[in-house]
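Subject: two folds for Thursday's group meeting

Dear M.,

Sorry for the delay on this. The cluster queue was jammed most of the week, so I only got both jobs back this morning. I'm pasting them in the order they finished. Each block is the input sequence followed by the predicted structure tokens. Could you check whether the formatting survives your parser before we put anything on slides? The first protein is the one we discussed after the seminar.
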Amino acid sequence: MEQVSATARYLRIGPQKVRMLVDGIKGKSVEKGLNTLRFMPNKGAGLVEKALRSAVANAEEKNMDVDGLVILNVLVDQGPTLKRFRPRARGRATRILKRTSHITVVLAEKAAKN
């Protein structure tokens, strides 16, 4: 079973927000996964869809059957955190953490039933 993957790195969205979405597409065919993501209203859905389309393009480069691909796994890891400050009362400042994510999509060919 041949596998192909694609990674989208340094995306400006928190990994916790993206992880909620990816559980809905794991194990589905690529076509069903894309349809599911297309109708989600979240910002992260568009980012995962872009990574999924990139993985499909990588599969085409490897001459794999695109119609028989299944989403084997989707990993969402935390990237570097951007630290910013917001002015507060009495001359103080509080830290704002702007989190980033790395999304890895792994596709595999569907196992043929004998």
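Second protein, same layout:
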Amino acid sequence: MNIGIDFHDTLSYAPAFFISMMRNWEHDIYVISGTPASQKDDIKRQLDELGITSDLYKDILLSYEYSDREMGVAHFNTMKEYKLSILKEYNITIYYDDNPFYVEYLKDHGIIVFQTILSTAYLDKWSGKDPLFTCNLQRKQFRYLDELDPENPLG
């Protein structure tokens, strides 16, 4: 039962929780990110700064190279398939990620998926700093709840 944990907005959102879990997990743990592989040293540095040292995980698995101009819906659809291929290649059967594109897709491919739900304060803090910050995708994820019929919410 290998675990994969997304870096941005999952590990970085709740490092203390994941460190505790990682210290006690008996199988392989992989840090996964849609960040291009050319930025591995930067991801490693950020992990170290969060206290997520290399003894807590087996490897950092990053993505193919792409540019910021490619960060549209097509990118997320391609990345979800890429992430699935990584999970399958490394026999990762449990996966944590915040991105709705990925969790919705991966849940139907034999992966036990846990979605990190980000607080409004976190979304507010980070969304203004980076317009490509994918946590912005969660802002609309639960809006359907406001549209439920109060008398028959399940109908």
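Two things I noticed about the second structure. The longest strand covers residues 29-36. The chain has one domain: 2-117.

Cheers,
T.
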